[in-house]
Amino acid sequence: MGEQKQNKYTNPAMATITGIMDLFKKRKGTLVLKEDERLDGKRVVVTGASSGLGFAVATRLAERGAHVIMACRSGIPEKGEEILRRVEREKGRKGEEEMRSGRVVKVDMVKVDFTDFDSVKRMVMELKERFGTVDMYICNAAVVVKKARKTGYGLDEMFQVNYLSKFYALKLLLQHGIIRTNDGSIPRIIFVASESHRNPEKFDWEKFGRFEDYGPGKTVGYYGYNKLLLVTWLNELSRRINPDGKVNYSVFSLCPGPVNSNIAREAPALFQPLLKLVFGIFFRHPMKASDPVIYFSTAKEEEGRTLDYLFLMNRKEMDPKATDPANGNKLWELSEKLLSSL
After folding, report:
1. Where are the domains of the chain?
2. Among 3.30.70.3340, 3.40.50.720, 3.20.20.150, 3.30.1780.10, what is the CATH number of 2-341?
3. Residue 221 burial (CB count, 10 A)
4. What is the pTM of this model?
5. What is d(CA 30, CA 123) in angstroms, rounded to the nearest whole number?
6. What digits encode the pLDDT tens for the residues 28-60?
7. 16 vs 333, which has greater pLDDT?
C-alpha cells in the first residue's frame, strides 16, 4: 500500500489518471452545502481570484453576501465587474423577493505577485489601510511550472508561490491584526492544498529552500512536496495561534480534486490539446470544484473547529508527516531563518 501511495503523483500522467479515478470512487459521509448559510457583512480575501478555482470561489461567496476582496497578480478590474454581473443575474433568477432584499454586493481588488515578497507586504498593508480587518482569508493562489525557474530571490518559483510567500503573508496579516472578526465569531483561514501532499516519502531538511534544476518529468513531484510543506505548516500555524486547546482562529485545508482550470497552462505545447480534452471531459468545472472551499467558508457547524481537512466533500485525515509537531516546528524555524536571510 505504501508503494502504491507513493506512485500516485510522481508524474503528470499518473497525477491525471489518479485525479480521474478519484472522481468516480464512491464515498460515504459526503458533506452537503446549505444554501441558507450566508456571509452577509463578512469581508473575505481570496488569493489567485482572477481565474479558475479562485474566481469561482470569489463569485460564489459574493452570491452568499460576502464583501469579496480579490487578491490577484493581474489586478484586472474587469474580473470584479464580471462577478458583480453574475451575482446580479443570479439574484434575478431567484425572483423579486431576492431583488427586494436590499443585499448589497461588494467586490474589491488588491494586486499581489507572490513571486515578490515586497508585493506581498504591499498587499497586506493595502488591506490594512483600505479595509482595516477581514473575517476570512482564503489561500488559493498556486502555480505549476513546466520546469525549474528562479525568482528574483534565487528561490524555486513553485516553492516561493505555493509555500513561502503564504507563510510570509500570514505572518504579516497576523502581526498587524488584520484577520479579525467584529461579531464575536472565529475568523477562518482556509488553504487550498492537494492530496499530492501524501506523495513525498520524507522531508529533505538539508536542502530546504535551495534551488535545484528539474525538468517537466519532475514538476508534479516538486508540486506535491511543496503541498506537503504547506499542509505541515498550517498544522503548526494552528498549534501556535490556538494554544492550550482554545480555538482563536479556524485553520482549514482541502483538496478540491481535479479542476478544469488553467493551472497546467505551462505544460509542453505538444500535450496542450490532449490536456484540454481530458480536462474538459473528466475534470470538474471550477464552480463545482469550489464546493469544499464554500463549505469551510460558510458552514455553521465548522464554528469553533480547526484543522479539518476535506478531500472533495469528504472529511479525511492529513498525512501523518504533516501533522507531526516535530516536523511542524522544524519547518517553522527553517522558514523564519530563510526569510530573514533574503
Report:
1. 2-341
2. 3.40.50.720
3. 17
4. 0.86
5. 36
6. 668 999 999 999 989 999 999 988 899 999 999
7. 333
